[in-house]
Amino acid sequence: MIDPTSIGTALTVLAVITVLVIAFGAALLSDMAMRRREDRAATPPEQAAAQPDEPAAQLPGSLQQTEELAAQAPTGAVSSNGRGPSNL
């Protein structure tokens, strides 16, 4: 027979774990929101609009060729796996 106190203990442990998961999730969301506000406050909108975009860093020769190949690669449904859509 199952001891009633073991069921109570299991439910208590489950409740504590659930509360901890919810607390850490809320803390994570709060931290992300706070960082977003700090980032927005660090640069006023009118100043951000006035600054020109920084030039992109130059890639080494082999990486630049890879980037060019990736830019020319087909991106359709057939190119992703070599077969056309089944349309079932």
From TrEMBL:
The keyword Transmembrane applies. Residues 77-88 have a biased composition (Polar residues). It comes from the Bacteria. The chain crosses the membrane at residues 6-30. Keywords: Membrane, Transmembrane, Transmembrane helix. Residues 42-60 have a biased composition (Low complexity). Residues 37-88 are annotated as: Disordered. This is Uncharacterized protein. The lineage of its organism: Bacteria, Bacillati, Actinomycetota, Actinomycetes, Streptosporangiales.
